[in-house]
Amino acid sequence: MPIRPYLDGDGTFDPADIQAMSMALADVCEALKLNGNAKATETVAVRIIELARRGERSPTKLRDRVVAEANGWLLARVPERLRELRVRPKWGGGSIAGNPAMSQVMDYRERAAKCVELAAQVSDPICKAAFLEMARSWAHLAEQADKNSALDLTYETPPASASGRGARA
Length: 169
Hints:
Layout: H1 15-31, H2 38-53, H3 59-76, H4 80-83, H5 100-121, H6 125-149
């Protein structure tokens, strides 16, 4: 993938440097699965050019650095409340102090924490983003289950009225 359109006529790079940066850009776009996303590709190209201006000319090192930064960027955007989650050992089963709703809340939180843990372990940014999205969903379910556990809803059938169907006058 040519990096030349992002150089804006910058004459500081020789043809070998431009070739190395172009190779790095193609590799990063493939590794991050950008699939023609123009804005993301431009962001990657600008970062590669910045690193090359600082002296890095190896396409492999440029690629590895930008991919590592992208992975770090994704993990840095994990909401604080998700980062604080930790995977706990499974409960003995059933409910917590006789409250099945609290057991469900803890289960959802454990699943969110496990997703954050898995996101930290994978290197593929698409998988990392998917795990983080799943963690957000599990955390949201935990919040909803926690709110719902505080509610004590009962349904009572309304009394039959005298003016209802089948009533005689």
